[in-house]
Amino acid sequence: MAAPVLHQPVPRTGQPTTAARDATRAFLLRAAQVRPPAPPSNADSVLLVVTELVTNALRYTGGPCALHLELHVDHLEICVTDTSPCRPQPRPPHTDGTGGWGWLLINHLTTHVHIEPTPEGGKTICAHSPW
Prior knowledge:
The chain is α+β, with helices and mostly antiparallel strands. It is 35% helix and 27% strand. The protein contains three helices and five strands. The chain has a five-stranded antiparallel sheet with strand order 1-2-3-5-4, covered by helices on one side. Helix 1 runs antiparallel to helix 2 and helix 2 runs antiparallel to helix 3. The two termini are 17 Å apart.
């Protein structure tokens, strides 16, 4: 069985984060058939990272975004492309529930994060999760 790849636009209407999580769950089922994750909890971490990246792309940019997931030999690559060239700005986490935890969580739950500019003037944030 070939290593699964998912690449799809994330709609700005309806329930975009739910659509991204649903697509991720289906991808993770296919990935687990190819090679089960090292610890089973990695699937939950991937869902959380996807949710944070997609939510931030929709919240802080005006254009569309896309989700790309790809299973590699030793990790799962999670990429979200959006239309803004601005890099994420870490902020101190707020204990009152008003935010600041996303970028911290992404960096804690993944082994590597990098940001690449797109030819169209946006960016792609790629995070590697152990698998």
